[in-house]
Design a protein that fits this description.
456 residues; alpha+beta; Rossmann fold; Dna Ligase, domain 1; D-amino Acid Aminotransferase, Chain A, domain 1; 3 domains; 8-stranded antiparallel sheet; 5-stranded parallel sheet; 15 helices; globular
Length: 456
């Protein structure tokens, strides 16, 4: 086992990793930007090192500074958390070259799964269902008509290096095809420095359901059930739950088996997530693989009673996973709500500022993962996530009731938060019935006049 791990991240995920390290008897090293010098992860770690100014490219994305911090502190491994450098194949290679263990996927797996076109080809080879569309990248407008004819409308134009909904366009009329293609190319070049585009059939009334996998480089793999991430705003997840309200046991097994097949065939090491779209006919299609721990990993931890971060560290240290599928059990229903510093009445505008009062909820089945405290200043340089409310119930109805109760108790003042928005979602008839798709938030909330903001 490692003696010391450097955490190349910030916020609640850095604290989450520090806690896992403490329970494993491992020393932790926090890195921080000048904007984060008063952050809680800096106070909780055994050591802390400033790696640069507030701008992420000069601190949390500054590979030479992070490697230097690891070498100075004597850390044997680096945990990248999620975001920042967690899916950066070059960073993984640099760690290896400096004899520092990267607690995450291999450079090869990161690179293969990071390119969505290549990932789709790979999954086809593994016999994992994929969305009909172009065989690889679409290099010119001249290919568009033939691909559109074969795929059928509606179709989705997608950036190969994309994320967060950028470089994506839905085509419902063939006359729009070339114009929307060029718009997607230009947006992808601007956002990612890469204008590569591919085309897929647009899935109608889709649910976003992902399967958590855990495996080692010898090909041993298990799945830890699903998370339903369908409640989204412009492709950004807001609420996650497990089990999914739309899966039956037969479909759950098929999706789990497909995810295990993918992880095993890749000889993937650590924890990862295979993301699927499920259409209204209960067909499922591979969408992408995230080669890192997810923001929503506590959902899986709660229903399986497993510590995924500890398991990540164990696999990275020992190069093996000792679990079999029969060892994985599930209990109850879990819902996670992302508490962001955003004003939902102003199109979810970021709301940085000073936290005046912070009173998290408690009670049976309630967990709060956060890095904020009274007096903490939410910086404007980073993601707006303040924390995550995770609730468990014996079934979905109890989990929803407990989430509403916990949100009613949750007080954060000084900045606007998504707490009032979540209360509206949890009380919405479509959410309660489980009958919604990925357009739910856009249609039911963003397309309607904003309600008067609740002061909390």
């Amino acid at each position: 086992m490692f003696n010391k791990i450097l955490i190349a991240n910030r916020g609640e995920i850095a604290i989450r990793i520090i806690r896992a390290c403490k329970e494993l008897g491992i020393k932790s090293v926090a890195v921080y930007s000048e904007a984060d010098k008063e952050s809680l992860h800096v106070r909780l770690a055994d050591e802390s090192i400033c790696i640069g100014p507030a701008a992420p490219n000069k601190s949390y994305l500054n590979i030479p500074a992070i490697i230097a911090a690891a070498e100075v502190s004597g850390a044997e491994a680096i945990h990248p958390g999620y975001g920042f450098l967690s899916e950066n194949a070059y960073f993984s290679e640099v760690c290896n070259a400096n004899k520092i263990v990267f607690i995450g996927a291999s450079p090869e797996n990161i690179r293969m799964m990071g390119n969505k076109s290549q990932a789709k080809k790979t999954m086809k080879r593994f016999k994992v269902p994929t969305v009909p569309g172009s065989d690889g990248l679409v290099d010119s407008e001249s290919e568009l008509d033939a691909i559109a004819e074969a795929t059928g409308l509606p179709l989705m134009i997608k950036a190969s290096a994309g994320g967060g909904g950028k470089g994506m366009r839905i085509v419902t009329d063939k006359s729009q095809l070339k114009e929307l293609y060029q718009m997607a190319v230009n947006e992808a070049r601007s956002a990612f420095g890469n204008g590569d585009i591919y085309i897929e059939k647009f899935i109608e009334e889709p649910r976003h359901v992902e399967i958590q996998v855990m495996s080692d480089s010898r090909g041993n793999a298990v799945h830890l059930g699903e998370r339903d991430c369908t409640v989204q705003r412009r492709h950004q997840k807001l609420i996650e739950e497990s089990p999914s309200p739309i899966l039956n046991e037969k479909l759950r097994k098929r999706m789990g088996d497909a995810a295990v097949k993918a992880a095993s065939s890749l000889k993937y090491e650590g924890v990862g997530t295979i993301e699927f779209l499920v259409d209204k006919h209960k067909n499922f299609y591979f969408m992408e693989m995230n080669t890192r721990i997810q923001v929503e990993h506590p959902v899986t931890e709660v229903v399986t009673s497993m510590d995924l971060v500890k398991e990540q560290i164990q696999i990275a240290a020992t190069k093996r996973m000792d679990f079999k599928q029969k060892d994985i059990t599930f209990s109850g229903h879990c819902i996670e709500l992302r508490i962001n510093a955003e004003d939902h009445t102003k199109n979810f505008a970021p709301s940085p500022g000073r936290i005046d009062l912070f009173l998290p909820p408690g009670g049976i089945g309630v967990r709060v993962d956060t890095h904020i405290y009274p007096g903490y200043v939410v910086p404007s340089h980073y993601d707006s996530l303040l924390g995550k409310l995770i609730v468990w119930g014996k079934d979905r109805s109890e989990a929803i009731a407990r989430a509403i109760r916990a949100l009613d108790e949750f007080v954060i003042s000084g900045v606007a938060t998504t707490i009032p928005f979540h209360l509206q979602v949890l009380r919405h008839p479509k959410f309660i019935s489980g009958q919604f798709d990925t357009s739910f938030v856009d249609k039911e909330f963003l397309s309607k006049p904003a309600v008067e903001k609740e002061t909390r």
